[in-house]
TrEMBL record:
It catalyses: D-glucose 6-phosphate + NADP(+) = 6-phospho-D-glucono-1,5-lactone + NADPH + H(+). This is Glucose-6-phosphate 1-dehydrogenase. Belongs to the glucose-6-phosphate dehydrogenase family. InterPro entries: G6P_DH, G6P_DH_AS, G6P_DH_C, G6P_DH_NAD-bd, NAD(P)-bd_dom_sf. SUPFAM superfamilies: Glyceraldehyde-3-phosphate dehydrogenase-like, C-terminal domain, NAD(P)-binding Rossmann-fold domains. Residues 189-479 form the Glucose-6-phosphate dehydrogenase C-terminal domain. Substrate binds at H178, K182, E216, D235, K331. GO terms for molecular function: glucose-6-phosphate dehydrogenase activity; NADP binding. Keywords: Carbohydrate metabolism, Glucose metabolism, NADP, Oxidoreductase. Catalyzes the oxidation of glucose 6-phosphate to 6-phosphogluconolactone.
Length: 483
């Protein structure tokens, strides 16, 4: 199968925070790979912007080092790197002052897409937005990309949305969640809505429960100040896991259209029930196997912030009534593993007898480290010893069927190109963000009011024992991450 690369319209992409870590690790390599694929039209430009007093030559050297470190084998072709660098420019700007804005305005070219990427602290959004408007840098083809966190709670999220709305139309705002750019996440929608095989079974009548796990082996890794104020609930559940839950649980949209898709996701968030205290387990990693503890990493010996959280929640709608959703995320765990597991119910009548055991079909969508989809099916165990059943995986990773076209681009490659195309399908809308916080805030206030402390768990383990006990009380087991 031959993959098609469709060039996007001519564009100028201005990256505020263009010398930062996100630009270095993700944005610059993603654009370079799209350039190498031929998706960037001749004349498209990347303009880095930050407070550093650099020249174009300084920034191009920064870009070269970024590509050498993070762009893989493509960066070994020096001619490609140098051709890409000729598309790169730099301007020194002050988000809260006048410096550099006239120069940036003079760089802009009319009659092309303008995308402004806010790869900066949210505290700078207001100043950047005001100056983009004051210097008439926005036009009908302009878009603004904002990174999480989208607020710290409902109140701050509403304030942030209101601030952006003063300067931009909602159709111009792209709230980026890189999880939605993963190829397998998008394949989830294709599997669900493009195959008659699954959609009739996608409900409480046939599905026993659904698990969503995002586990990391790393600790807070230099993000201690941010993480101490956020915790796993704000950092992961309110956005990444919430978006995965929405795609798993949403109704089929009328069309594959940005607002139609986001309307259905919003219905899922609003259908989430309150979470009971005994269905919440918070944890905090301790020192083990040569690793430091969370409290050491954040330099706070009395920290009560969670680095792990597990939840059991329900949706109050017809499709999912009675089907539990188990969400789990944590740092410094035994494996790096992000996956969604849909566990189907047992057959209504076991014709093979008790000795055949209990068996459930499982559909597993693996997001990292290796993207793919597998379906567990029950077959006869080979041999003459009677009807013994065994579960085996049916590989649906598509790698052999699609060949080279199955190579998954980085999520930022897809999402940045969607910004240029003006496609908001994989980006969060303002009401989505606020609905997610409206569900999250009472959970956080609840454990704060109760004075709950996170349960300790060893670094490089599967998390606190209480999380295992929570799901075992329901006669179920966590899939994936093990001790």
């Amino acid at each position: 199968m031959v993959s098609r690369t469709i060039p996007v319209d001519l564009f100028d992409l201005v990256v505020f925070g263009g010398t930062g870590d996100l630009a270095r690790r993700k944005i610059l390599p993603a654009l370079f790979k799209r350039f190498c694929s031929g998706q960037m039209a001749d004349g498209a430009r990347l303009i880095g912007a930050s407070r550093r007093d650099w020249s174009d030559a300084d920034y191009r050297e920064f870009v070269r080092k970024s590509l050498s470190e993070f762009a893989g084998e493509l960066a070994l072709d020096r001619s490609l790197v140098e051709t890409f660098c000729r598309c790169v420019h730099y301007v020194s700007v002050d988000a809260n002052g006048p410096r550099g804005w006239d120069e940036l305005s003079g760089l802009m070219v009319a009659d092309r897409v303008r995308a402004f990427y806010f790869s900066v602290d949210p505290g700078l959004f207001s100043g950047l937005s005001m100056r983009l408007q004051d210097h008439e840098l926005m036009n009908e083809q302009s878009r603004v990309v904002v990174e999480k966190p989208f607020g710290h709670d409902l109140e701050t999220a509403q304030a942030l949305n209101a601030e952006l709305a003063q300067h931009f139309d909602e159709s111009q705002i792209y709230r980026i969640d890189h999880y939605l750019g993963k190829e397998t996440v998008q394949n989830l929608m294709a599997v669900r809505f493009g195959n008659m095989l699954f959609e009739p079974l996608w409900n409480a009548q046939y599905i026993d429960h659904i698990q969503i796990t995002v586990a990391e082996t790393v600790g807070v890794d230099g993000r201690g100040e941010y993480y101490e104020s956020a915790g796993a609930m704000r950092d992961m559940v309110q956005n990444h896991l919430m978006q995965l839950l929405c795609l798993i649980a949403m109704e089929p949209p009328t069309f594959f259209d940005p607002d139609a898709v986001r309307d259905e996701k919003l219905k899922v968030i609003r259908a989430l029930s309150n979470v009971e205290p005994h269905h919440i387990v918070r944890g905090q990693y301790t020192a083990a196997d040569g690793a430091t503890s969370y409290r050491e990493d954040v330099d706070n010996p009395r920290s009560r912030t969670e680095s792990f959280i597990a939840l059991k929640c329900h949706l109050n709608n017809w499709r999912w009534a009675g089907t539990p959703f188990y969400l789990r995320t944590g740092k410094r765990m035994s494996e790096r593993d992000s996956e969604i597991t849909v566990v189907f119910k047992e057959t209504p009548h076991a014709i093979f007898g008790q000795e055949a055991g209990r068996h459930n079909n499982e559909l597993t969508i693996q997001l990292q480290p290796d993207e793919g989809i597998t379906l567990g099916v029950t077959i006869k165990d080979p041999g003459p010893g009677g009807m013994r059943l065994v579960d085996v995986p049916l590989d649906m990773s598509f790698a052999e069927a699609l060949g080279p076209s199955a190579d998954s681009p980085d999520a930022y490659e897809r999402l940045i190109m969607d910004v240029i195309r003006g496609d908001q399908t994989l980006f969060m809308r303002n009401d989505e963000v606020e609905a997610a916080w409206a569900w999250t805030d009472p959970i956080i206030r609840g454990w704060q009011a109760r004075g709950d402390a996170p349960k300790p768990y060893d670094s490089y383990s599967a998390g606190p024992d209480d999380a295992t006990m929570m799901i075992r009380r329901d006669g179920r087991e966590w899939r994936g991450v093990i001790n």
